[in-house]
Write a structure and sequence with these properties.
Blueprint: H1 10-13, E1 26-36, E2 48-54, E3 58-59, H2 66-83, H3 91-100, E4 109-110, E5 119-127, H4 129-133, H5 151-160, E6 168-171, E7 174-177
Parallel strand pairs: 1-5
Antiparallel strand pairs: 1-2, 1-3, 3-4, 6-7
Length: 184
Amino acid sequence: MKLFNDKKDDEFTAELENHAIKDSNIYRLYFLDYYRIGYGYESKERNVGITDWPFEPFMLPENMMKEDAFKVLSYLTDYLEKNYNLEECSFQSVKLLNDFLNIPRFGFKKVNEDNDEKIINLYTVVGRIGLFKKSKYYSSYFEWYQENVSLDEVKEIYQKIGLDFTDVIISKPRILVKENTSQN
């Protein structure tokens, strides 16, 4: 007996395309996990489960270009996943990155914004990607994450906006931030 219907395989292997980024200066990390629920789900169309978790909106550091900010966020994501042994693209990874945006020296500023039309969502999508392609969110999807961003690249980004970036030191179970001890 075959447990999975071949028609559903494309739900896991779907290719995502970038869409235009709207003009706004407010961003938000957004975690989505699409899955099927129930026994014999391959024959049902209304058995989709979704973890739909928007985080708090934020603004980029002053004078930082969005492409550079995406590199910084990508670097921090990789750093956190590696140092906390988190699964890539997991809810825990996105939540911890969101928490890091509260560290003042990174320059990101949380804002109160309830109007979804003014927010650019930075999606992390897992599970049945093909179901995401059919969702209301897909038309605003773009790939913000960039692999293998180096510490030197992040330092250069911060230098361009007149700030120093010192790396994060993680000491379980809490997070310590290495302070810049050089004097100018």
